[in-house]
Amino acid sequence: MQASVASSRGLENVARVALAYFVLYSIGDALAAWHAVDGVDFKLWNAAPAMSLALLVRFGVRWWPAVFAAPLAAGFLHGATIEGWVWIAPRAFAEGSSVLIAAILISAKDRSVDFAPLRTVSTFFVAAAVAAGGIALVRLCEVLIAAPSETAALAVAGRIFVANLTAILCFSPILMFYDFAPTRVLRWPLISYETVMQIAALGAIVWEVFGRFANAEVHFFYVLFLPLAWITTRHGQRGAAIALAFVFLSAVVSDWLLIHTLRAGTELQLRLIVLAVTALLLGTMVSERRRSQGQVQAQQTELTHLQRLNIGSEMASALAHELSQPLTAAMNYTLAALRMIKAPDPDLERAAEVLSKGISQVEAAGQTVHGLREFMQKSELRLSLSHIDETVKRAFHLVSAEADAAHIDLRAVGLSALPPVYVDQVRIVQVLVNLLRNAVQAISEAKMASGAITVSGMDKGDLIEISVADTGPGIAAEVMERLFLPFVSTKASGMGLGLAISKSILESHEGDLQAVALPQGACFKLTLPRSSAEIRDA
Ligand code: ADP
Q1: Which atom of ligand 1 is nearest to the CA of 497?
Q2: pLDDT tens-digit map of 158-200
Q3: 380-537: what CATH class?
Q4: From the CB of 431, is ligand 1 less than 6 Å away?
Q5: CATH among 1.10.1740.10, 3.100.10.10, 1.10.1760.20, 2.40.128.130 for 1-188
Q6: Measured from the CA of 496, which atom of ligand 1 is nearest?
């Protein structure tokens, strides 16, 4: 039963991919403007082969039949005549096999979702040339068979090569390397002020370049490098891929609206090739650098976690040692007293003496525990006037690598309006990091593809309340009651100390920490007294 559900889902996916590919292919094929050179017509802006390459790289070379079938289907859609098929069939074969070879070259290299390393990108350049070369070669044979002079044949083949290379370099990266699930597309920081500026700059310059694109020369093309460099340095490979696809589509639209000569079209395409290679190389380097920085940060985090674990285990063993001595002594005194009481001739006075010694041992153990609590709560707070939004920013910075890796958005809402508070900022950051890290771990352990953690603030008169809410699975029922007790954890490697320490830090600030179950996720509410802030402020 389960197998049949899985296989029907698999079939559904195959049907979805096939449909999307054939629709995109036909659109690309239909939008490509026709141009004729020396009696041979070809499509100057044909992105269809670029889509075939993306299909094979993304979903595997086992999709090869689709790649051979798509050009035939497009020919059928255009109502080709019987004579037309004489050319359509070999062209479809040439396109399918060239693209297949290119895809095999790229697929042999490593890449992960949303990122291709420099080696893979270099192979992509070679593969693009192979695919474009294969398509051009068949057209060259076609022209030679039709028998015009050899020089014209070479010129036609050259233009076809350039046209296909441009489309593949500009259009396939976005389809090939990136995930288009809505949660991931929305993660691209479209809303940030800088991104809006980048889109505006790119749009304005594209408008200027392609709007004024005259036939004699390609005006101001070099200005396009500016927004491309800006976007690429900020958004890496993903930014480069999106911007290149946009520039390519703008060129197609401008060719439809303004109808250029073929020579101007090829000239523009040569420039686009240079732009694409530059942007993809730069984008890849930026992404690679970010990734290695992320890895260093992740290692650092791991190290801090290990240190925390070490401190935790050391504390636990020290505590066990400290407690075991008085408790063993107390046990021995109690046993001795019991023996005396049970003796045929009990010495009650002596037994009471021994028992009182046992009581003092238990008291000593109690003092050790008490001392530890005092140490946790009162150990020198370094109070200073702090802004909550600053404090939250510092905490976000510390967990951003972990959150990014798990595709979790960190959001801050309504914090700047809160009054400053007198707190030990380092301790409050420690509390926030604990809560944020718990939320990140909860979301990723639940195998959720993405999530969000929102830190919001509220001024409640004599209290300032900060909520840390996540979209994770929520708090497990079995720990809910004992959440703030030490050593309570549902994690295999968890010490279960984070929330206990966090609560005692807040209590030492005369505040509190509470957990609230949300319909979807968990929420921790921190309170800090406002009065203490104002008294100290005065
Ligand atoms: P640890 O992280 O070492 O387990 P904590 O005291 O920080 O110790 O957390 C105790 C337990 O509370 C965790 O093991 C987890 O089960 C639960 N918990 C804490 N935060 C969350 C959260 N945001 N979502 C779900 N469960 C949580």
Answers
A1: 6
A2: 888 999 999 999 999 988 877 666 665 555 545 678 888 898 9
A3: alpha beta
A4: no
A5: 1.10.1760.20
A6: 8
